[in-house]
Amino acid sequence: METVFSVTTAAVVSQFFVGLSRAMILFIVTAGLSFVLGVLRVPNIAHGSLYMIGAFCAFSVAKLFGGGSTGFWLGLILSPLIVALISLIAERALFCHLYQREHLMLLLFTFALSLILGDLVKLVWGAEYRSIMAPKTLQGFVSVWGSSFPRYNLFLLILGPLVAIGLWFFTNKTKLGKIARAAAVDREMVGAVGINVSWVFAFAFVFGCFFAGLGGALVAPTGTIALGMDHHLIIEAFLIVTIGGLGNMWGAMVGSLIFGLTQAFGVLFWPQFAIVFPYTAVVIVLIWRPRGILKSVW
Amino acid sequence: MQNSALNVKGLWPSLLTLVLLILFPIILPQFYVYILAVIFVTALLAMSLNLLVGFGGLFQFHHAAFYGVGAYTFALTVTKAGWPIWLCFLVSPFAAALAGFLIGWFCVRLTSLYFGMLQISLGSLLWAIAFRWYSLTKGDDGIHSIPIPGFITSKTSAYYFILFFFVICLVVMYRIYKSPFGVTLQAIRDNPARCSAVGINVRRHQLTAIVIATFFAGVAGVLFVILEQSVFPDLLFWVLSLEIFIMCLLGGWFTFTGPILGAAITVSLRTFVGIYTEYWTLILGVILILLIFFLPEGVMGFFAQKFGRGRNKSTAPAREQHAES
Fold first, then answer.
1. Chain B interface, mutation test: which of A1, A97, A102, A285, most B Cβ atoms within 10 Å?
2. Whether B113 and A43 lie within 8 Å, measured CB to CB
3. Chain B CB contacts of A115 below 8 Å
4. Percentage of chain A exceeding pLDDT 90
5. How far lies B115's CA from each of A239, A262, B20, B109, in Å?
6. DSSP string of B37-96?
7. What is d(CA B81, CA B205) in angstroms, rounded to the nearest whole number?
8. Which is more confidently placed, B70 or A2?
9. Among B60, B24, B56, which Cα is nearest to B45's?
């Protein structure tokens, strides 16, 4: 393989923005995972499958409305809701009966759920590769410091911080968010003051899974939608929430930035082993700070 | 079951099973013999993992990495280095143990989920080498038709070869499990703080356990190559690690033989349900959920409790410990 490093400033800037926009999608997905981890203390393996379902739903909704702009925007709104509905059913029918069990059993349950959801996706959508187009307004390129940059990625760069601010506002300023945060710290106390902890957990689970669906719908126009995208995402997502600090929303942001940027620059500097860079970053972070960069709620 | 190695009466079922397993290739069709061999290899891998998960209480999340290291070392030493075959047999498990030592050395500094996550990222680096270093490992194509000695090329002789090493490893693992070291390890699982207070070096014991377990994973990797004569990067992928982790939980992670059952169930499901429908993981998922609801101690744990034999005295405190962490 020919590896000529003609690393120009334009290429660095371009890869920087590619990494940033990838980080924003990762952030939206991992913020949800981190929220579930924080409140329920369960590493939700099914999160990746829900992300995949989000992407496939976005495809179906877009197709239903003729593949135009309306289809995309409706998909962006509907698919997180569909994913939230699926997670609500799973939580109320099965998961809520298991909260008293030991941790590894909960992990096993979410794994079983991911197996079932993964096969259901195969059953409903088949094994073909799918793709959707971004709406007209987000197609094309903009020029940033001499390098052209997809408009859709710019949209992601705006949306990511908006979601972060919204989440911060929700967990810090609304009553429901405060209850969820309190349940993360001391669930017995929350129950003792007369709040139905079971429903708080249900809400937290569904709320977290909503972001998996949103991330899936957002990632749909940037690449192919296929079976197996859940496997690649979920491991990245777990590593991100761990290095950021379990259950910490800003930690998910920091972790996503580290992961997205190291991956993007890895592609630039050593394409063959680009995949090694983010993992190395995780190893360095965990050896340097064994409990993640920011404070974990565990 | 616990004292079967000492108790002659308790040894009977094991001996009977062994005789049956030796006779199987004579009565069963070739295909089933092959499936049995796959089960032995998978079971050995799952048991080596259970040494850490069930008895060590460690979140060994990327055990397949060491299985892959064993398999790849064997494949590479046979095809590239051209060493005598017995040397390759010998070197590969030690290579896996060395990888286990290096990765474990970093991991034992961390606890619970952090331990698991660090191991996943370190193990994924090994996977990336197997997946991307085309000139050495042929990347995602893998290495196929690896030459192995003539006396184990047929499926039946490979079966006997694998059975032989499987039984040896099983006995050795049982001795380790019963040894003072094994008991200390279980004590560390149940209460690490108290163990370190009475002067046990917790980290060193855990690291030793990791080295031992990864050695057996390496043996399983070599046996896999003997059976399939090929290696590919999926052997080191974390999905396989998760699968064997699930086998331990499925079979009963506080019992010695549970992982064998877990491996047997998973492999048979994949093989026999896979014939009828491509949606066998859906069925596996449903079975897992039923199991979580009705047999929380795993299949073998359930039987052990029901028949009052082999009940693990340390089960109860261990569960509390895990619930806390």
1. A102
2. yes
3. 281-282, 284-285, 288
4. 26
5. 11, 22, 41, 8
6. HHHHHHHHHHHHHHHHHTTT------THHHHHHHHHHHHHIIIII---HHHHHHHHHHHH
7. 35
8. B70
9. B60
| Strands, E assignment, B96-148 | none
Residues from chain A that touch B288, judged by Cβ atoms under 8 A, are 108-109, 111-112, 115
Which amino acid does the sequence have at B17? T
CA-wise closest residue to B295 among B244, B266, B254 = B254
CA separation for the pair B307, B180 (Å, rounded): 27
Task: Please state the domain extents for chain A.
Answer: 9-288
Tokens for B139, please give them.
Answer: 């990347």
Residue of A nearest to B321 (CA): A102
**In chain A, whose CA is at the least distance from the CA of B325?**
A103
In terms of CATH architecture, what is A9-288?
A: Orthogonal Bundle (1.10)
Beta-bridged to residue A147, according to DSSP, are: A144
DSSP codes joined into one string, A170-213: HHHHSHHHHHHHHHHH-HHHHHHTT--HHHHHHHHHHHHHHHHH
| DSSP bridge partners of A148 | A143
Say if residues A129 and A60 touch (Cβ distance below 8 Å): no
**Predicted pLDDT of residue A28:** 94
Tokens coding A251: 């930690």
B chain contacts of residue A243, beta-carbon cutoff 8 Å = 117
Put simply, the answer to whether A235 touches B124 (Cβ < 8 Å) is yes
In chain B, the N- to C-terminal Cα span, in Å, equals 29
Best residue in B247, B292, B293 to probe A by mutation, most A CBs within 10 Å? B292
Q: Helix H segments across chain A?
A: 9-40, 46-64, 69-93, 103-125, 151-173, 175-185, 187-192, 197-219, 229-244, 249-269, 276-288
**pTM for the model:** 0.85
Asked if A242 and B325 come within 8 Å (Cβ–Cβ), the reply is no
Does residue B325 contact residue A103 with C-beta atoms inside 8 Å? yes
pLDDT at B311: 42
A150: three-class secondary structure by DSSP? strand
Instruction: Identify the bridge partners of residue B231 per DSSP, sorted by sequence position.
Output: B143
Residue with tokens 């616990």: B2
Q: Is A172 exposed, middle or buried (0-12, 13-18, 19+ CB in 10 A)?
A: exposed
Residues of chain B with pLDDT under 50: 1-5, 310-325
A5-9 mean pLDDT: 65
Does pLDDT of A68 surpass 70?
A: yes
Q: CB distance from A102 to chain B under 8 Å? A: yes
Residue given tokens 């997502």 in the structure block = A237
Residue contact A101–B296, C-beta within 8 A:
yes
With CA atoms as reference, report the closest residue to B67 among B198, B245, B243, B224: B224
Q: Is A93 on the interface with B (CB under 8 A)?
A: no
Q: How far is CA A140 from the centre of its chain?
A: 25
pLDDT given for residue B10 in this prediction: 65
User: CB of B31 within 8 A of CB of B272?
Assistant: no
Tell me whether A283 touches chain B (CB under 8 Å).
Answer: yes
ipTM exceeding 0.85, yes/no: no
Distance CA B101, CA B98 (A): 5
